[in-house]
Amino acid sequence: MELNIDDIIFWESGFFKVNATLLNSWVLIFSLCIGAIIINRKLQAGINIGRAQAMMEAFIVYVLEQIELETNIRPTRYLPFIATLFLYIVSANLLSVIPIFYSPTASLSTASALALCVFMAVPIFGITQTGFKNYMRKYIRPTPLMLPFNIIGELSRTLALAIRLFGNVMSGSLIIAILLSISPLFFPVIMQAFGILVGVIQAYVFSVLALVYIISAVSVQSDNVELQEVNHNQNPEDNNG
Q1: Residues of 76-106 as b/e, b for ≥16 C-beta within 10 angstroms?
Q2: pLDDT tens sequence across 202-215
Q3: How far is CA 153 from CA 119, 139, 162, 169, in A?
Q4: What is the pLDDT of residues 211-231, one digit of tens each?
Q5: Are 2 and 8 in contact (CB under 8 A)?
Q6: Which string of b and e fits 187-214 if b means at least 16 CB within 10 Å?
Q7: DSSP alpha helices (H): ranges in the chain?
Q8: pLDDT tens digits for 96-120?
Q9: Which of 23, 47, 189, 211 is most buried (CB neighbours < 10 A)?
Protein backbone atom coordinates (compact mmCIF):
# COMPACT_ATOMS: atom_id res chain seq x y z
CA MET A 1 0.00 0.00 0.00
CA GLU A 2 1.32 3.46 -0.96
CA LEU A 3 1.18 5.98 1.88
CA ASN A 4 1.53 8.87 -0.58
CA ILE A 5 -0.57 8.70 -3.74
CA ASP A 6 1.94 11.03 -5.42
CA ASP A 7 4.27 8.02 -5.53
CA ILE A 8 1.84 6.04 -7.72
CA ILE A 9 3.19 6.84 -11.20
CA PHE A 10 1.16 5.88 -14.29
CA TRP A 11 3.32 7.57 -16.94
CA GLU A 12 6.66 9.34 -16.87
CA SER A 13 8.86 11.02 -19.45
CA GLY A 14 11.79 13.06 -18.18
CA PHE A 15 10.56 15.82 -15.88
CA PHE A 16 6.90 15.22 -16.71
CA LYS A 17 4.94 12.45 -15.02
CA VAL A 18 1.31 11.55 -14.42
CA ASN A 19 0.70 10.21 -10.93
CA ALA A 20 -2.47 9.12 -9.12
CA THR A 21 -3.10 12.61 -7.76
CA LEU A 22 -3.02 14.23 -11.18
CA LEU A 23 -5.01 11.50 -12.95
CA ASN A 24 -7.76 11.40 -10.31
CA SER A 25 -7.95 15.20 -10.29
CA TRP A 26 -8.44 15.21 -14.08
CA VAL A 27 -11.15 12.54 -13.82
CA LEU A 28 -12.93 14.49 -11.09
CA ILE A 29 -12.74 17.86 -12.88
CA PHE A 30 -13.89 16.30 -16.16
CA SER A 31 -16.83 14.59 -14.43
CA LEU A 32 -17.92 17.77 -12.64
CA CYS A 33 -17.73 19.81 -15.86
CA ILE A 34 -19.73 17.22 -17.82
CA GLY A 35 -22.32 17.06 -15.05
CA ALA A 36 -22.63 20.86 -14.96
CA ILE A 37 -23.06 21.04 -18.75
CA ILE A 38 -25.76 18.35 -18.75
CA ILE A 39 -27.68 20.02 -15.91
CA ASN A 40 -27.35 23.44 -17.56
CA ARG A 41 -28.75 22.16 -20.87
CA LYS A 42 -31.77 20.62 -19.16
CA LEU A 43 -32.67 23.56 -16.93
CA GLN A 44 -36.40 23.99 -16.56
CA ALA A 45 -38.70 26.43 -14.77
CA GLY A 46 -41.63 25.47 -12.58
CA ILE A 47 -42.13 22.42 -10.41
CA ASN A 48 -41.60 19.72 -13.06
CA ILE A 49 -37.80 19.78 -12.95
CA GLY A 50 -35.35 16.90 -13.07
CA ARG A 51 -33.74 15.30 -10.01
CA ALA A 52 -30.29 16.61 -10.88
CA GLN A 53 -31.55 20.19 -11.18
CA ALA A 54 -33.52 19.83 -7.95
CA MET A 55 -30.42 18.54 -6.11
CA MET A 56 -28.26 21.35 -7.48
CA GLU A 57 -30.83 24.00 -6.57
CA ALA A 58 -31.10 22.55 -3.06
CA PHE A 59 -27.29 22.63 -2.77
CA ILE A 60 -27.11 26.28 -3.92
CA VAL A 61 -29.86 27.34 -1.50
CA TYR A 62 -28.08 25.51 1.34
CA VAL A 63 -24.77 27.25 0.59
CA LEU A 64 -26.49 30.65 0.36
CA GLU A 65 -28.16 30.09 3.73
CA GLN A 66 -24.90 28.96 5.34
CA ILE A 67 -22.97 31.98 4.06
CA GLU A 68 -25.67 34.36 5.27
CA LEU A 69 -25.89 32.55 8.61
CA GLU A 70 -22.12 32.64 9.20
CA THR A 71 -21.49 36.21 8.03
CA ASN A 72 -24.83 38.05 8.15
CA ILE A 73 -24.06 39.65 4.77
CA ARG A 74 -25.36 39.32 1.21
CA PRO A 75 -24.07 35.92 0.10
CA THR A 76 -24.31 36.18 -3.70
CA ARG A 77 -20.85 37.74 -4.11
CA TYR A 78 -19.14 34.80 -2.39
CA LEU A 79 -21.39 32.01 -3.65
CA PRO A 80 -19.41 31.00 -6.81
CA PHE A 81 -16.08 30.62 -5.00
CA ILE A 82 -17.34 28.98 -1.79
CA ALA A 83 -19.79 26.65 -3.56
CA THR A 84 -17.15 25.56 -6.10
CA LEU A 85 -14.62 25.00 -3.32
CA PHE A 86 -17.03 22.89 -1.28
CA LEU A 87 -18.31 20.90 -4.26
CA TYR A 88 -14.80 20.03 -5.45
CA ILE A 89 -13.48 19.06 -2.00
CA VAL A 90 -16.47 16.94 -1.03
CA SER A 91 -16.39 15.20 -4.44
CA ALA A 92 -12.66 14.60 -4.11
CA ASN A 93 -13.05 13.20 -0.61
CA LEU A 94 -15.88 10.89 -1.66
CA LEU A 95 -13.93 9.65 -4.69
CA SER A 96 -11.96 7.30 -2.44
CA VAL A 97 -15.17 5.36 -1.74
CA ILE A 98 -15.20 4.17 -5.36
CA PRO A 99 -12.86 1.20 -5.97
CA ILE A 100 -9.63 1.84 -7.98
CA PHE A 101 -9.93 5.62 -7.40
CA TYR A 102 -7.96 7.73 -4.94
CA SER A 103 -8.94 10.96 -3.25
CA PRO A 104 -6.83 13.85 -4.68
CA THR A 105 -7.13 15.67 -1.35
CA ALA A 106 -5.11 12.87 0.27
CA SER A 107 -2.12 14.48 -1.45
CA LEU A 108 -0.38 17.46 0.13
CA SER A 109 0.05 19.03 -3.32
CA THR A 110 -3.74 19.16 -3.88
CA ALA A 111 -4.42 20.46 -0.36
CA SER A 112 -1.71 23.11 -0.85
CA ALA A 113 -3.22 24.16 -4.20
CA LEU A 114 -6.65 24.58 -2.61
CA ALA A 115 -5.18 26.56 0.28
CA LEU A 116 -3.31 28.72 -2.25
CA CYS A 117 -6.64 29.47 -3.98
CA VAL A 118 -7.98 30.72 -0.64
CA PHE A 119 -4.77 32.67 -0.03
CA MET A 120 -5.25 34.47 -3.37
CA ALA A 121 -9.00 34.92 -2.95
CA VAL A 122 -8.69 36.76 0.38
CA PRO A 123 -6.86 39.88 -0.97
CA ILE A 124 -8.88 39.80 -4.22
CA PHE A 125 -12.19 39.98 -2.35
CA GLY A 126 -10.75 42.41 0.18
CA ILE A 127 -9.32 44.86 -2.36
CA THR A 128 -12.35 44.61 -4.64
CA GLN A 129 -14.77 45.47 -1.85
CA THR A 130 -12.79 47.83 0.40
CA GLY A 131 -10.17 49.34 -1.89
CA PHE A 132 -6.40 48.83 -1.94
CA LYS A 133 -5.53 51.37 0.79
CA ASN A 134 -8.18 50.22 3.25
CA TYR A 135 -7.20 46.60 2.75
CA MET A 136 -3.47 47.21 3.22
CA ARG A 137 -4.09 49.20 6.43
CA LYS A 138 -5.02 46.02 8.26
CA TYR A 139 -1.39 44.85 8.00
CA ILE A 140 -0.14 47.84 9.99
CA ARG A 141 -2.68 47.62 12.81
CA PRO A 142 -2.37 48.54 15.62
CA THR A 143 1.13 49.78 14.74
CA PRO A 144 3.35 49.52 11.61
CA LEU A 145 5.71 47.36 13.67
CA MET A 146 3.15 44.58 13.34
CA LEU A 147 3.57 44.39 9.54
CA PRO A 148 5.94 41.36 9.45
CA PHE A 149 3.91 39.52 12.09
CA ASN A 150 0.64 40.09 10.23
CA ILE A 151 2.25 38.79 7.01
CA ILE A 152 3.56 35.72 8.85
CA GLY A 153 0.08 35.21 10.26
CA GLU A 154 -1.42 35.21 6.74
CA LEU A 155 1.12 32.64 5.53
CA SER A 156 0.81 30.41 8.59
CA ARG A 157 -2.97 30.16 8.43
CA THR A 158 -2.74 29.21 4.75
CA LEU A 159 -0.23 26.50 5.62
CA ALA A 160 -2.44 25.31 8.48
CA LEU A 161 -5.42 25.16 6.12
CA ALA A 162 -3.55 22.86 3.72
CA ILE A 163 -2.10 20.60 6.41
CA ARG A 164 -5.47 20.27 8.17
CA LEU A 165 -7.22 19.05 5.02
CA PHE A 166 -4.35 16.77 3.95
CA GLY A 167 -3.85 15.31 7.42
CA ASN A 168 -7.50 14.53 8.07
CA VAL A 169 -8.17 12.98 4.66
CA MET A 170 -4.88 11.06 4.62
CA SER A 171 -5.32 9.69 8.14
CA GLY A 172 -8.93 8.71 7.44
CA SER A 173 -7.95 6.82 4.27
CA LEU A 174 -5.06 5.13 6.10
CA ILE A 175 -7.23 3.99 9.02
CA ILE A 176 -9.86 2.60 6.66
CA ALA A 177 -7.24 0.71 4.63
CA ILE A 178 -5.68 -0.79 7.79
CA LEU A 179 -9.03 -1.90 9.21
CA LEU A 180 -10.09 -3.37 5.88
CA SER A 181 -6.88 -5.39 5.73
CA ILE A 182 -7.47 -6.72 9.26
CA SER A 183 -11.10 -7.68 8.85
CA PRO A 184 -12.30 -7.34 5.25
CA LEU A 185 -15.65 -9.04 5.92
CA PHE A 186 -16.84 -6.92 8.86
CA PHE A 187 -15.54 -3.39 8.46
CA PRO A 188 -16.14 -2.45 4.78
CA VAL A 189 -19.66 -1.00 5.05
CA ILE A 190 -19.08 0.74 8.39
CA MET A 191 -15.76 2.23 7.37
CA GLN A 192 -17.03 3.36 3.98
CA ALA A 193 -19.86 5.20 5.75
CA PHE A 194 -17.31 6.67 8.15
CA GLY A 195 -15.20 7.79 5.19
CA ILE A 196 -18.18 9.56 3.59
CA LEU A 197 -18.96 11.37 6.85
CA VAL A 198 -15.35 12.48 7.33
CA GLY A 199 -15.13 13.67 3.72
CA VAL A 200 -18.24 15.85 3.99
CA ILE A 201 -17.17 17.30 7.36
CA GLN A 202 -13.69 18.19 6.09
CA ALA A 203 -15.12 19.89 2.99
CA TYR A 204 -17.50 21.89 5.20
CA VAL A 205 -14.74 22.92 7.63
CA PHE A 206 -12.40 23.97 4.81
CA SER A 207 -15.12 26.04 3.09
CA VAL A 208 -16.20 27.74 6.33
CA LEU A 209 -12.60 28.64 7.21
CA ALA A 210 -12.10 30.05 3.70
CA LEU A 211 -15.26 32.13 4.12
CA VAL A 212 -14.13 33.39 7.53
CA TYR A 213 -10.76 34.48 6.11
CA ILE A 214 -12.45 36.31 3.23
CA ILE A 215 -14.97 38.04 5.49
CA SER A 216 -12.18 39.17 7.82
CA ALA A 217 -10.57 40.85 4.81
CA VAL A 218 -13.69 42.63 3.54
CA SER A 219 -14.72 43.82 7.02
CA VAL A 220 -11.86 46.34 7.12
CA GLN A 221 -13.94 49.02 5.48
CA SER A 222 -16.80 48.48 7.93
CA ASP A 223 -14.40 48.89 10.85
CA ASN A 224 -13.05 52.12 9.36
CA VAL A 225 -16.55 53.53 8.88
CA GLU A 226 -17.55 52.64 12.44
CA LEU A 227 -14.33 54.19 13.80
CA GLN A 228 -14.96 57.40 11.87
CA GLU A 229 -18.53 57.57 13.20
CA VAL A 230 -17.30 57.11 16.80
CA ASN A 231 -14.68 59.86 16.39
CA HIS A 232 -17.30 62.15 14.88
CA ASN A 233 -19.69 61.60 17.80
CA GLN A 234 -16.94 62.08 20.41
CA ASN A 235 -15.53 65.29 18.82
CA PRO A 236 -18.48 67.11 17.22
CA GLU A 237 -16.83 70.53 17.78
CA ASP A 238 -13.63 69.53 16.01
CA ASN A 239 -15.57 68.29 13.06
CA ASN A 240 -17.70 71.47 12.91
CA GLY A 241 -14.62 73.65 13.21
Answers
A1: eebeebbbebbbbbbbbbbbbeeeebbbbbb
A2: 888 888 888 888 88
A3: 12, 10, 14, 24
A4: 888 888 777 555 554 444 445
A5: yes
A6: beeebeeebeebbeebbeebbebbbebb
A7: 20-41, 51-71, 79-94, 108-130, 132-137, 147-182, 188-218, 220-234, 236-240
A8: 778 788 888 888 888 888 888 988 8
A9: 211
